[in-house]
Amino acid sequence: MAEPAAPTGRAIAALALPALGVLAAEPLYLLFDLAVVGRLGAVSLAGLAIGGLLLGLVASQGTFLSYGTTARAARRFGAGDRSGAVHEGVQASWLAVLIGAGIIAVVQAVAVPVLAVIADGGAIAAAALPWLRIAILGAPAILLSLAGNGWLRGIQDTRRPLHYVLIGFGVSALLCPMLVYGWLGAPELGLAGSAVANLVGQWLAAALFCRALIAERVSLRPDRALLRAQLVMGRDLLARSLAFQACFISAAAVAARFGAAAVAAHQVVLQLWSLLALVLDSLAIAAQALVGAALGAGLRAHARSVAVRVTVLSTVAAAVLAGVFALGSRAVPALFTDDPAVLAAIGVPWWFLVAQLPIAGAVFALDGVLLGAGDATFMRNATLVSALVGFLPPIWLSLKFGWGLAGIWAGLSTFLVLRLVFVSGRALSDRWLVSGPG
What we know:
Its main location: membrane. By secondary structure, the chain is an all-alpha fold. The chain has 15 helices and no strands.
C-alpha cells in the first residue's frame, strides 16, 4: 500500500496558524496587563514585573507537558488509537494538577525571602507579594492548559486550543481594568486586581480543556506506567529548558555590566528575537504533530517528507523575515526608543539577529521534527552541549575581555550553529525514524 503524499503548505498552515495564535496570545495579553497596571505608578509596574517573572517560570518550565504530550499523543493517534492519544492527555493533566499544587505550596512558603532577594526588599517586594500570592493559585490551571494543548495538537487539532486560550485571555482582559480601577461597580483592587483577572482567565481556559478531555469519554484514572514514561520525557525536556534559561539569564547579567544603553539594546533585540521565535515555533509545532502521527502509523517515508517540507518552509520564512529586518535596520529600532546611545548600541546585535534568522528557521523546524519523534534525550544532550560549549563561554569571556554585545550575540550565534549541526546530523541519520505507537 502506497504511503500518503506529503502534506501541502496549506495543510501545514492549518496546524501552524492556530498554534501561532496560541503562542502569541499570552505575550499580547501581558502587554495589555502592563499598560493597565502602568497607570498605577512605577512601584506597581515594577511589582508586576517581578511577580510576573516568577509566574512566567512556571509556564516556561512546564512546557514539557505540552511538547512531550504532543509527541506521545501524536504517535498513538497516527496508529489509529485516538482513545490512547487522549489517555496521554489524561495522564498529563494529572501531572499538571499534582505539580501545580506543589508549586503553590512552595511559592507560598518562600515568597517573602525570594522577593526580598530578587527585588532587594522595600516597596517593590511589598507590591509584588500580594500579586504573586494570588496569581500563583493559577499554577495548576496554567499547567492544565499546557497539557490540553499537548494532547489536542497530538490529535491534529490546533483550533480548539486557540479558542480556549482566546476565551481565557479575553475574560482576563475584560476583568483587568475593572478590578484594577474599580470600573462598573467592581471592587477597586489596584495591583491585586491584575492577579485576580489573570487567575479567573487561567482557570476558565483550564476548565475548557478539561471539558474537552471529559467529552472524549475515556478513563480518567491515573496510569502509573504512562505517568512514569511522561516524567522521563519531561525530565529531558526540562533539562533542555533550564539550559536555555541559564544562557539568557547569563547574557542579561553580562549585558547589564556594560551599562544601561547596552542592556537596553540587548533587551530590545532579544524581545524581537523571542517574537520571531514564536512565529517559527508555530511551524515546529505543526512538524511535531505531523511527524508523530506519521511514525505512529509506521509511515517512515512520510515522516521524512514532512521533516523536509517543514524545514524548507521554516527556513524560507525565516530568510524572508531576515530580509525585512535588514531593510528595517533604522526604522524598526526607532519604534522602541529615541535614546541615541541605545540606538547606537542596537546596531551590533541587530545584524547578528538578521544573520541568525535563516539558521534559526532550520533549527526550530528540526527541533519540532525530533520532538515529534520523541527524541527528547538526544535533544537534551544536544542543547546542553551547545550551551556549555557555544553560548556560555563567549558570554563570560565578553565580560572578561570587554567584547560587549558583540561577544554576547556571537555566543548566541555559535549556540544556534552548533544546534544546527546536531539536529541536522540527527535528521540525516534516520535514527529518529522509530515507528510505532511509542
